[in-house]
Write a structure and sequence with these properties.
Elements lengths: L1 H8 L4 H50 L10 H11 L15 E2 L11 E8 L7 E2 L10 E2 L1 E11 L2 E2 L5 E4 L52 E6 L9 E4 L8 H9 L6 E2 L3 E2 L7 H12 L6 E3 L4 E3 L8 E7 L1 H9 L6 E15 L2 E7 L19 E5 L2
Parallel strand pairs: 7-14, 8-9
Antiparallel strand pairs: 1-2, 2-5, 3-4, 5-17, 6-10, 7-9, 8-16, 11-15, 12-13, 14-15, 15-16
Helix pairs in contact: 2-3, 4-5
Length: about 375
């Protein structure tokens, strides 16, 4: 009996109980601190991988082939390559061709979005291994991330070159339209022609202007305009950002002027003869990437640089707006109607030769919506 009483009152060994409970609490806290933190890092890395894939896919739609959404097409291929280039905890994610999809825009219905799903899961054979949670028989965890990028019409542009050519019209005088035509809707007395040339601006049904896909690779030679002629090859020199002068003009050709330009903006022309600064600036630009060339096989630019400086945006002016001012005796204003991408191929004398190419635009929250028919596309993550 006394022995039982002693055993009942004996507290020796209780420290082992507390140590055991403390160890459990320590392991639980460690699991939260180490494994949860690791899994959060894994999730962020997986999201980075998905974001990169979606942006690369949308970029391929713009610059490679907007219509090819096949499993072996450039959009799917580049989306997968970009996603796989970003590891999660040092291990590649799993991205199959079927994990790259092209959902429709929720309001316009256009299939201009690229969605990419990336996986590090047990089902794909690459789950994320745990450290402390392994003692609780939680040996792996699944990580999945999704991102969606969009190639939507751009409503603004920067890095434009300081010269402008007219937007494309429907040629009625000498059908069909070619780079040697001139825009004519009235005779020299201001009377409408029997078959006037027709220009419909972007944002209106039946836009007649340049198309990113239909005009890709179109050869175009531009030279200084003569008089008030409206011709595809005649350019007017511009003062970008309000700065005038030959040196500033030449610099704006060879470099990127970050002044933002929007649809409908009135352009300021350079007061002097800018033929020399134009060709000098174009040569400066050409020399930055002298080995770039136009590949007729892919109908695209090939360059050792990631982004050739010889690809740049040119603002297009509204030919009707300009012609109206010219005929009514007021200032013949140049109004931004759109932009095209232009690849500088060659310079011969005062003439600049190149090809029309897709161009990336910008989304300016302070500007109005981009009109339907906008040539440049803005690439951005939307989800």
């Amino acid at each position: 009996m006394n022995r039982l009483r002693r055993l009942r009152r004996d507290e020796s060994g209780m420290s082992y109980v507390f140590i055991g409970l403390g160890m459990m609490a320590f392991l639980s806290a460690s699991m939260l601190a180490i494994d949860v933190g690791m899994l959060m890092t894994s999730r962020n890395q997986a999201q980075t991988s998905a974001d990169a894939g979606a942006l690369a896919g949308a970029t391929a739609l713009v610059f490679n082939d907007y219509n090819d959404r096949s499993t072996t097409g450039p959009a799917v291929t580049q989306a997968r390559n970009a996603a796989l280039a970003n590891t999660v905890m040092g291990v590649n994610v799993s991205v199959n061709a079927s994990d790259v999809t092209f959902p429709a825009h929720p309001t316009s219905g256009e299939f201009n979005r690229v969605e990419v799903d990336v996986f590090r899961t047990g089902a794909r054979g690459n789950p994320v291994s745990t450290l402390i949670a392994w003692f609780f028989k939680i040996k792996t965890a699944d990580i999945v991330a999704t991102a969606t990028a969009e190639a939507s019409p751009a409503n603004a542009m920067n890095c434009v070159k300081p010269f402008t050519i007219p937007d494309k019209w429907t040629e009625k005088q000498t059908p069909g339209w070619d780079v040697n035509d001139t825009y004519d809707a009235y005779d020299n007395k201001g009377k409408p022609l029997a078959k006037p040339d027709i220009y419909i601006p972007a944002g209106q049904p039946g836009y007649t202007g340049y198309s990113m896909e239909a005009d890709r690779g179109l050869p175009l030679m531009i030279r200084a305009g003569t008089g008030n002629n409206i011709a595809p090859s005649f350019y007017f020199s511009l003062a970008i950002g309000g700065e005038t002068g030959g040196d500033e003009y030449r610099w704006n050709i060879a470099n990127c002027n970050t002044t933002m330009m929007q649809f409908g903006e009135l352009l300021t022309t350079e007061p002097g003869n800018m033929v020399g600064p134009t060709t000098d600036g174009a040569q400066d630009l050409f020399d930055q990437d002298p080995t770039a060339y136009w590949d007729t096989g892919c109908n695209c630019v090939k360059s050792p640089m990631k982004k050739s400086p010889r690809v740049f945006p040119i603002p297009l002016y509204d030919p009707v707006f300009y012609d109206s001012g010219k005929r009514n005796g007021r200032t013949a204003d140049l109004k931004v109607a759109n932009w095209i991408g232009f690849f500088l191929e060659d310079i011969q004398g005062n003439n600049i030769y190149g090809r029309i190419t897709p161009i990336k635009g910008m989304f300016d929250a302070g500007a109005g919506p981009a009109p339907e028919g906008a040539f440049p596309l803005a690439i951005r993550l939307v989800k």
